[in-house]
């Protein structure tokens, strides 16, 4: 994705003629490599706005251009789909343009990351609310979308999965993706958004814009691991550099390490290290020098248009194949 998603004079109302406008005259630009928070009171139109951004709903007036490969986690996930969890994810992976093998690997990876691997073969209709939400999140992440739209996606997730989703959001942004989210918990990704908007009176107002150029703010975390321990894969993925402060030690992964991470990733990195098994001891956390920007990951292999969970109507014949 190399251009902005642009909303120009966008309005949406439900119903004909005299129906009230939920949104009207919305102008908004979302740039690649940014994280945007949308806030606002209940019923102000946040979900309406996210559905328009995700492309699963169309504006009544105005236009939206520049939408890249998009994935969306809706506020309400249609859980009773005729699939197993893995079957659904493999099907959605195919919709996103992955081969069946790629989709199966991505499904396993995301179910594991979210702590739902044991439910891979469970019919969606039998999943608990939280496990079903993990599948909703996994379907959006598995094809590394360029635009990720999250409507209260953390609701119902356990602590570990909530942390994992925060991490995934930061990874998407670091990879050059655009992420937009709504969450009623003000602590969600606190300090991380590049911009926060509030939906008020049918329009969008800027609440905060990050004043520090993100790529210039880095944190250096020095950690001590158990003898022989490798740093968690997630920690090395979040870091822009991993160094051994004292060369000549017995081998890689032993002793202390110095990780440099974008400031916005530091909380996630610390959580990753402290919740590792066995945990890593954080020796020091300090301000880092300006460093090079996190290189974007290679784009996903194939293109897909807008998403969707909307594929809710997907066929039972696929499910039959997957379950067999
Ligand atoms: N499909 C629909 N048909 C008719 N009205 C709708 C529809 N979807 C939303 N609305 C109405 O649009 C308004 C905004 O709803 P929306 O769900 O976008 O708000 P929200 O800010 O996301 O609310 P919440 O914080 O409670 O999730 C509400 O008055 C709602 O009743």
UniProtKB/TrEMBL annotation:
Source superkingdom: Bacteria
Instruction: Write down the SMART domains for this protein, in alphabetical order.
Output: AAA (SM00382)
Chain ranges of the ABC transporter domain: 5-226
Q: Which UniProt keywords apply?
A: ATP-binding, Nucleotide-binding, Transport
Question: Which Pfam families does this chain map to?
Answer: ABC_tran (PF00005)
* A GO molecular-function descriptor: ATP binding
Task: Extract the InterPro entries matched here.
Answer: AAA+_ATPase, ABC_transporter-like_ATP-bd, ABC_Transporter_VariousFunc, P-loop_NTPase
Does the record carry Ribonucleoprotein as a key word?
no
Q: What is the protein named?
A: ATP-binding cassette domain-containing protein
The organism named in the record is Streptomyces phaeochromogenes
